[in-house]
User: Fold this.
Amino acid sequence: MSSCAILGASGHGKVIAELAELNGFKEITFFDDRWPELQQLEHWSVCGDTSVLITSVNKYDLVVVAIGNNSIRLEKNHQLKNAGGKLSVLVHPSAVVSKYASLGDGTVVMANAVINSFTDIGEACIINTSSTIDHDTVVDDGVHVSPGANLAGGVKIGANSWIGIGAQVKQLVVIGENVIVGAGSTVLHDVLNDQIVVGTPAHSITSSH
Assistant:
């Protein structure tokens, strides 16, 4: 392993760059759709936009989308995969991932996260710092589980949903697609698609669209 291309020159991108380095990648190159205006992120170079990366995607041993917006991250993940990019999973050395868990291409697992047995994580997910996902949970494509969030056993999270920082989800709860769970909320009951839920217990306040 040597070269890693990261799409998304942002704060999240910085974390992904260090994560790639911890996984043995020596050469980190950024791409961002603000290029050519944006040329540099800290000490890393920004060398093109999405279209430039697509034309050169086979040059890199790993390609990662580091974009916080769930739907955009998933869309870009599909574009790069269809172009022949080598997408896999990046896991921080301090994270604990069960050998019986399944993680999709383009998913990243941050420091001190725990993913327990027979959990199924989709593509292009962010399992962020110190979050926990218990046994038999299903997390669909493009989901962001924020720092310190905890999903109990048998939970189901729909595509493109965002579980806010420090949120808790009770066992066997089903959360739909495009849902936002507010920071520190406690979800005790199922949540329909396209909802924003907040509080303890969590209740819907509006549509997320």
